[in-house]
Amino acid sequence: MTEDIDPVTDILIPGSVAGLLSTAALAICGRLHGKRASAPISAVSHWLWPQEANQTARPEWRHLLAGLAIHQSMSIGWAACNALAVAAARTSPRLRGGAAQSHGQRVALAAATTLAAAAGDYIVVPKRFTPGFEYHLPAAHIAAVYLAFGAGLVVPFLSKRR
Fold this sequence. Notes:
Elements (H helix, E strand, L loop, with lengths): L6 H26 L5 H5 L18 H31 L7 H26 L14 H23 L1
């Protein structure tokens, strides 16, 4: 199954696009909620500096850079999970199908991966390892960020098919 996965086209590119789109959504939602655009992006830096978690409203460069690096790394990690699911769907005789079904499967698997990421981020992990978006954004904006992430997992595949 893993031999069907191209690390660049199946993991690195979708993970990077998902990370970039969700980072843009974080910045936009931060501004819409009356915060600095960098505040929700920097929030995840509380992993490294828990005693400074409240300072991410006016982040220093180290908070912003750490937030960006952690967010992008986690996006690529979740893209790897998505690539494994896509490879499993490709090799499953029950799930194989034509291009239309493949598009639908890709979207469904990206949605499932996004839901798993959100559940992992806010239900499974201890509070110390949440993304920290909740410090700066309401739930509706956090949902928009995850929606952008899920779209990022699918966009490279759909644009490659066109």
